[in-house]
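A protein record in our archive is deliberately plain, so that people and models can read it alike. The record that follows is passed on verbatim for readers who wish to inspect the format.
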Amino acid sequence: MSVKIRLQRHGKKQKPFYWVVAADARSKRDGKYLEKIGTYNPNTNPATIELNIDSAVKWLHNGAQPTDTARAILSYKGALLKHHLDGGIRKGALTQEQADAKLAAWLEAKAGKVDAKKDGLTKAQADARAKAFKAEQEVNAKRLAAAAQAEADAIAAATPAVEEEVAEVEAEAATEEAPAAEENNETTEA
């Protein structure tokens, strides 16, 4: 029986979620498996991977062949490096302490790279939000300035019409007062 380390699909449509499993090569993709080694969620950025490294290394020692994607995941989490270092220990090229020190240094460097990527992503998102907010403020300022200008133009256009109406009313009032004053003069003369 040949054993493969592969991904088993879970989740829903357009939202995949995978289990990393050790399964018989003849079983269905989502069928029976021998052991669940971890999980892989590609929906997050960076992808979330939880892996039992010791269990994965045990299956690699027993001859399990990882698929291409599973090999990338095992490499990313350091399981393939640990398997390689264990081979060096068996051959006598390394001691267990040296192998553990190399693995710890590699894991620490990898964690630093992942943290740097997360920080870069959050900084990029914050910069994008700040840029969008600044652009929105500029658009709002232009819109408010245009509205104020339109209101000022409307007032300026209405002002001469009002002045003309006031002048017409004053002229009518003056012409009405003049005949009334003439009538008063005639009545006082008679």
Observations:
- The beta strands are 3-12, 15-24, 35-41, 48-51, 65-66.
- Residues 170 and 176 are 10 Å apart (CA to CA).
